[in-house]
Amino acid sequence: MVEFTLIDILRNLGVGARWTVALSLVAFIGGGAVGMLLLTARIGGGRMVRGLVSAYVNAFQGTPLLMQLFLTFFGLALFGFKVSAWFAAALCLTLYASAYLVEIWRGCVEAVPKGQWEAARSLGLSFTQQLRLIILPQAVRIAIAPTVGFLVQVIKGTALASVIGFIELTKTGSMIANATFKPFVVYGCVALFYFALCAPLSWWSKRLERKLSAAPV
Description:
By secondary structure, the protein is mainly α. The radius of gyration is 21 Å and the shape is flat. Helix 1 (6-44) crosses helix 4 (85-111), helix 1 runs antiparallel to helix 7 (169-180) and helix 1 crosses helix 8 (183-214). It has one domain (6-214): Orthogonal Bundle (MetI-like fold), CATH 1.10.3720.10. The chain has helices at residues 6-44, 47-61, 65-78, 85-111, 114-122, 127-157, 169-180, 183-214. 82% of the residues lie in helices and 0% in strands. It is built from eight helices and no strands.
C-alpha cells in the first residue's frame, strides 16, 4: 500500500481532471461543428440526405457510449490504424456529441414559428441567409439550456474513456484507489471534482437562459 496524503490525492486527481476538461472541450467543440453541418443538411437537404442524417443519429443514440468507445478503439486497430486512447476517445465522443447536438438544435430550430421562415423567404433571402440571419438567432435563445446541459453530460461521459486506457479523472482515481486502498476517500474526491466542473455550468446556463428570455427579441 502506498501512503498518500489528502493533498497528494487531490494533486494527482487535478492532473487527471485537466485531461477530462481537454477531452470534453475537444468532443463538444468538434461535435458542435459536425452537428451544425448535419443540422444544415437535415433541414435543407433532400429526402435521401435527411434519411442518412437520421440513420447516423439513430446509430449513436441507439447504442451505449461504452460500446461505441470499444468499437472505435479496437475497430480502428482491426483495420490497421494504430491510434492512441486519446485519439479514439476524442473521435468517438465527437461523433457521439454531434449526434445529440444535431437533434437538440433541430428541435430548437423547429420551435421557431414557421411565419419567420415565410417572412425570410419573402425578403428574397437564400436558405443559408434565412438560417443565419433570421432563424438561428432566435433558435439560439431556446438552445442555450439544453446545449449546456448536454455539455455536462459530455463531461460525465468522459469517465467511460477510462475503459480503453485513457487516463482522465476517473482512471486516475481508480489507479490511486488501487494503490492506497482508500476507495471511499479517493472516489469521494473524484465526485467532488466532477461536481466542481459541472455545477457552475448548470448555474451559468440557467442564468444565461433567464437573461436571454428577458432580453427583447
